[in-house]
Design brief:
about 70 residues; two-stranded antiparallel sheet; alpha/beta; about 40% helix; 3 helices
């Protein structure tokens, strides 16, 4: 696993991603930051907020990275 990447609406997902990063030792980036810092094809954990039964930002993350957990 190379990183934890997240998308947040109210800030809650960012807090959860940072807590998970602290426990795992993985770097954590917002999806926008990750585009510059995490190489395409990297294995990542993706976290996003849910709206209308879908995890926001997942399609973008899955198109660029190998998402191994959501």
């Amino acid at each position: 696993m190379n990183a934890i990447i997240y998308t947040t609406n109210t800030g809650s997902t960012a807090r959860y991603a940072k807590l998970l990063a602290h426990e795992t030792g993985l770097p954590v980036y917002s999806l926008a930051e990750a585009r510059k810092k995490v190489f395409a094809g990297a294995e990542v954990i993706y976290m996003g907020w849910i709206m209308a039964g879908a995890v926001k930002g997942y399609a973008d993350a899955a198109g660029r990275y190998k998402v191994r957990a959501v």
